[in-house]
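Table S7 (text form). Paired inputs.
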Amino acid sequence: MITIIAAAGENNELGKDNDLVWHLPHDFKRFKQLTTGHFIIMGRKTFESFPKPLPNRTHVIITRNKDYTPKVPEGREQDVIVVHSLDAALLKASADKQPFVIGGGEIYKQSIEASDKIELTRVHSTFDADTFFPEIDQSQWEKISEVRHDKDEKHSFAFTYETWVRK
């Protein structure tokens, strides 16, 4: 089962200048809880937005650059795999029963047809962004759960965890 995991604003905004446009600590905790121990598939820019590889996950980086060598701390090389297509990424991640596609926008667009589930954090505001999540076609997807989190002292925006499965 291939799962897309993302956080997007009301107009499907993902981020700007290769960064998130909000800070939601509970969403980070949920992302960590769901993806730890799994393969995470991402584009090069998403990988490079991390200060270092995320712990306890195998990173599958998609890039068109055949000469790309990611910067990886010594001893973490086995946690990073570079491939040159979504198909190659899915093949590498097939060792995991639950790989996650974690972005960015272009990788989400490419992978939505191959995915079985979407874990979407819908951030209840609009944002200035340059990267967007694809529209969820409700003729192909069904929302099976939603859990709202109101704005509070740690979260500047209300948000809802939405789980979608392919019909």
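Next pair, protein 2 of 2.
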Amino acid sequence: MKKTLLYQIDAFTKERFKGNPAGVVLNADGMNDENMQAIARELNNSETAFIFSPTDSESDYTIRYFAPSTEVPSCGHATIAALYAKALEDNLNSCILRINTKIGILPVEIEKTDHDYQIIMTQGAFTLSPVFDDKTTEKLLSALHLDLSDLEEKCPVQIASTGHSKVMIGIKSRKKLNELHPDMSALTALSNEIGCNGYFVFTFDSDDEDILTYGRMFAPAIGIAEDPVTGNANGPLGGYLVQNKLVNYQNHYFEFNGRQGEQMNRLGTVNVKVTVYNGKPELVKIKGNAVAIFKTNLL
């Protein structure tokens, strides 16, 4: 009987029990949707990644991602975790691998230094939806228990995506960010209206010159009350900042570090790189550390 090899990885950190935990099943061949959903629900991480043998000549692996209650098309931290686990298990050297996901085939770079790894994920194509109308913004603010005066005036409220969309909500105060206690039922209802299940509240209120933003991400519609550190929020945030001309950059290139997880005591950092062409984001990459928590076989 085939053994199912399972890792638990904390992504976007080198400190155990910080960052964002993800389950990784390294040999998922033969599993069906029901199997994967049951494992994701049992582990109860925000996402669990399942690695399959390639089904085409263009990719090295196929990866699928499951939140506790549903499959999602892409996941930043679970990709970092999956390729980190694969690198550990196979003792990989620095290389570029291509993963087949629901949003297409994406290159992932593995950087090996001092017997450890950093993972760089190229995300999907960046898109930015129209700014929310006043009525939708009012519903959102009510659900987040925010006032209009809490918003950062220069930051439009709109949906950004590199494969798994998030609503971008810029606010003025990090203290206010850490005090948020959203109405999860209201956020879930709003998700059904706007077709987006994630809400990324961020601020430029940072006391560290190496950290541009602090953020929190809520996605109750897919069973994630709060996600500790979100690659599919910080990556699109980079594109959002560039396209809305909220940041300066040089030589068609913008890079920043976003921090998340402070309120949850699971602090992690996402490095985001945006290649810019004609003033618009052309390519978004996220880079992160990771650390293994356990490795086991499912009985």
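The domain at 5-122 is CATH 3.10.310.10 (Diaminopimelate Epimerase; Chain A, domain 1).
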